[in-house]
Amino acid sequence: MAQALEETGGPGGHERGIFDCEEAHHSPQESDYQRIFQSGLVVLDTNVLLNLYRSNQRTREDTLAALSKLRDRLWIPHQVLTEFWRNRELRAVRHHHGTKAKEACAALTKVGRSTEDALDRWVTAVHLKNDTEVTQRIDEALETLSETVRELTELIQAQAEKDALTGTAATHTDPVLTRLEPLLRGRIGEPLSPGEHDKAVQEAQERADEEIPPGYEDFRSKPPEQAAGDYLLWVQLLQEASRRDCDVLLVTGDVKKDWWISQEGDLPARPRTELVVELREHAGAQLFMLTPGQLLSWAEKLLDVQVDESSVSDLEQLRGTETAAESSTGGWTIEPLMRFMGELLQRYPAQAKVVTAAAVNGGFVDRSTVYDLAGYPDDRTLKGFTRPISTVSRELEDEGVLTGEEPFLLHTIYGMPTEPSWASGFRIPSDVVALLQGNTDEPRTPGGSEPPSGD
Predict the structure, then answer these.
(1) Phi-psi region of 260 (alpha: psi -120 to 50; beta: other; left: phi over 0)
(2) Helix crossing, 57-69 with 175-184: angle to 10°?
(3) Please, are residues 280 and 245 in contact by the beta-carbon 8 Å criterion?
């Protein structure tokens, strides 16, 4: 019997190999991408679509050419569509090459003026204003500099005019929408039902507390509804992969560590192991991931698409700068915070008391303290307790009081011992703690320290 088990690898008769482990990773091969391009599911993240506005003309055309070749394989989760329309004007249409060109030209002009001023101050300080030879050489050098600035300014303006997207103000004249509509028609997933959506948002928060990918990084800087976006996309992807019974290629410019495992040296990053395992268990499929630039490289190799080499580097550079912009937060400052707290005190006093108590307690307030402060009966749930925070945030952003980059003010922490899906308390950002501690003399509330399962 022992010999039989040794030969078969176990009672089930399966001969285990070196890759029979959840942590095992097969490096993707050309044949994998060839198979997916022919019969798999190619899922596009929101940033792939928004990049069509941010890219220059050459990169935009190369990307559209590659997507057109993959048209029959493309699929867009409904969450991607939602995020695309939410961010189209704010992060894409306004990201205009003309604006960047003006900034660059203004910087060049400033360099010329500051150089001239510096030389003038130097000549005066060392008493050389009457030295004809020195002043003549300076004038000649400044003229050369001025001519260089003019040439660079003309080059920048010409390139901006070439790359400019006209007609984006109206959807029926937007050239990007005109190209995307026939390309993606019939390839957009259905939205989650209200019940499924609410459940997924709660699951996203619970997974974020345990740092289970994807999306937990966003919960550190975004309101819960927006922070859950990556997980909503993932849920829809799992459902579609299961329905189609095929492998999946996710194309995303998101480089955060809740999607990718970074590698040292020249080794390429790869999808988080948890994601690979979850897709395999849920749909029996393999997960592959590429950045937009990598997709162009493989499209050129396998789909006979002519891709300019600089388009790949442009997308990689854009991916880095956009991710940095999205991950950075402006933080809270005292004036907007006091305005926010004033709105809460007037309209939502329970939430205002909880935020203040959390600040006094070092950033966290537990469940029982919330019930005491709010005067809630024991049979009332805390579901939706942070919605007033979202409401005030949205209103103050519209007024221009908030930038929209501030971390969400009140995060729900899950993990009750008897009911893991119940809120164990609430947490506020560390910068809010510091600001409010300097503006309150209230005594420390009960509630103790944050539970180990919280953050």
Answers:
(1) beta
(2) 10
(3) no
Burial class (CB in 10 A: 0-12, 13-18, 19+), 242: middle
CB 40 within 8 A of CB 73: yes
Is 293 within 8 Å of 47 (Cβ atoms)? no
Give the least confident one: 81-90, 308-317, 351-360, 417-426: 417-426
The strand pair at 287-290 and 248-251 is best described as parallel
What tens digit of pLDDT does each residue of 319-363 get? 655 544 444 445 788 888 999 998 999 899 999 999 998 888 878
- CA 264 remoteness from chain centre: 23
Cα–Cα separations (whole angstroms), residue 158 to 95, 310, 324? 18, 18, 28
Q: What is the DSSP code string of 238-293?
A: HHHHHHHT--EEEE-----TTTEE--STTPPPEE-HHHHHHHHHHHS--EEEE-HH
Helix (H, G, I), strand (E, B), or coil: what is residue 36?
A: helix
What would the DSSP string read from start to end of 209-244? HTTPSSSGGGGGTS-HHHHTHHHHHHHHHHHHHHHH
Q: Please state, rounded to an integer, the average pLDDT across all residues of the chain.
A: 81
Query: pTM for this one?
Result: 0.62
For 26, the token pair is 């097969």
Burial (CB count <10 Å: 0-12, 13-18, 19+), residue 259: buried
The helix (run of H) or strand (run of E) holding residue 450 is none
Torsion over CA of 112, 118, 119 and 121, rounded to 10 degrees? 140
Answer whether 369's CB lies under 8 Å from 446's CB: yes
CA dihedral 238, 301, 306, 260 (to 10 degrees): 40
CB 418 within 8 A of CB 367: no
d(CA 360, CA 348): 19
Q: In the chain, what is the greatest distance between 2 CA atoms, to the nearest angstrom?
A: 106
Q: Does residue 454 contact residue 427 with C-beta atoms inside 8 Å? A: yes
Both tokens assigned to 183:
């390309």
For residues 200 and 231, is the Cβ–Cβ distance under 8 A?
yes
Using pLDDT thresholds of 50, 70 and 90, give the confidence band for residue 34: very high
Q: Over 50: is that where the pLDDT of 15 sits?
A: yes
Closest by alpha carbon to 33, among 299, 281, 267? 299
Assign 3-class secondary structure to 385-431.
Answer: CCHHHHHHHHHHHHHCCCCCCCCCCCEEEECCCCCCCCEEEEECCHH
